[in-house]
Amino acid sequence: MAYKSLLTVLTDPKVSDATMAQLVALAEAQDAHAEALCLGVDRTQTGYYYAGANAMILQETLERASAEAEATLAYAKEKLGLSDVRWSVEDGVAQIADLGRHVAYRARFSDLVVLPLPYGEDRGAEAEPIVEAALFEGRAPVLVVPDKNVAKGSFPNVLVAWNESVEAMAAIRKAMPFLMAAEQVRIVVIDPPQHGPERSDPGGLLSQMLSRHGVNCEIDVLSKTMPRISDILNRHATDTSADLIVMGAYGHSRFREAILGGATRNMLEQAKVPIFMAH
């Protein structure tokens, strides 16, 4: 299997260069079609304005969102037009409360969605719901790309975060094209449970499954020497020169992750290499 339909959702050209470069690199390597959905986002909530102002403000915000969509469309055409890949672009306007529906519909028909980090400087309020809509409503795997990422068509050294969860296995299955093409895959297990089914051989069955697909695996069992799992994963990714991290997304509810934090959110806030996620 290869990723033949690649999608990105653009709302702000200022934070999209690394994402577009990665999209093109993957499309070239996978002989895939690259698609860019360029959205102008109406970020207002007109119910908060005084009576009689809604129509005027709505018109102004829609005009602003339409202008943003046109500028983003021109940006996407310029970037994709410089490549030799098959591509298409489409623009539109969406209110932020309804953004997820548009993203999910397009993600549903994509093999992989390539998006910028949802957290960081110059990120609009729409960045996080776009990632979540692709993962949850679109049921598509998402490749999240850091701003300073160097685009690659393949990832020679892949780190797989394994905690025996359904989410982690979903990500691993959907990342198989990358895993099979990698030179080295490290299965990282952090503080395996002492009484779990894999207590005597953490990661062993996963390694066996992947090796039957020709994946060259190693198992790294790490102690939780830092407060957050994300810190350990990021440090290990740096120590092993990983090109990609594969992990399950949102093992807890999204509300709990947003309020209390969690491995998914923390990883997305600190990522230095692309992160492949699925739920």
List the helices and strands and how they pair.
Layout lengths: L4 E6 L6 H14 L2 E10 L11 H28 L4 E10 L3 H9 L4 E5 L10 H11 L4 E4 L11 E5 L4 H9 L1 H6 L2 E7 L13 H8 L5 E6 L6 H11 L4 E5 L5 H7 L2 H8 L4 E4 L1
Parallel strand pairs: 1-2, 1-4, 2-3, 4-5, 6-7, 6-9, 7-8, 9-10
Antiparallel strand pairs: 5-10
Helix pairs in contact: 3-4, 8-10
DSSP helix count? 10
Strand residue percentage:
15-25%
Largest sheet: 10 strands, mixed
Radius of gyration: 20 Å
- Give me the secondary-structure category: alpha/beta
Strand line-up of the largest beta sheet: 3-2-1-4-5-10-9-6-7-8
Spans of at least 5 consecutive residues whose pLDDT stays below 50 are none
How many angstroms separate the termini?
Answer: 19 Å
Q: Quaternary state, please?
A: single chain
Percentage of residues in helical conformation: 25-40%
Q: Which sequence of SSEs, written as H and E, runs from N to C?
A: EHEHEHEHEEHHEHEHEHHE
Average pLDDT works out at 89
The count of β-strands is: 10
Please tell me what the overall shape is: globular
Descriptive account of the structure:
The protein has 279 residues and is of the alpha/beta class. The chain has 10 helices and 10 strands. It has helices at 17-30, 54-81, 99-107, 127-137, 166-174, 176-181, 204-211, 229-239, 254-260, 263-270; strands at residues 5-10, 33-42, 86-95, 112-116, 142-145, 157-161, 184-190, 217-222, 244-248, 275-278. The protein has a 10-stranded mixed beta sheet, sandwiched between helices. Helix 1 (17-30) links the parallel strand 1 (5-10) and strand 2. Helix 3 (99-107) crosses helix 4. The longest helix has 28 residues, at 54-81. The protein is globular, with a radius of gyration of 20 Å. The model has no long low-confidence stretch (mean pLDDT 89).
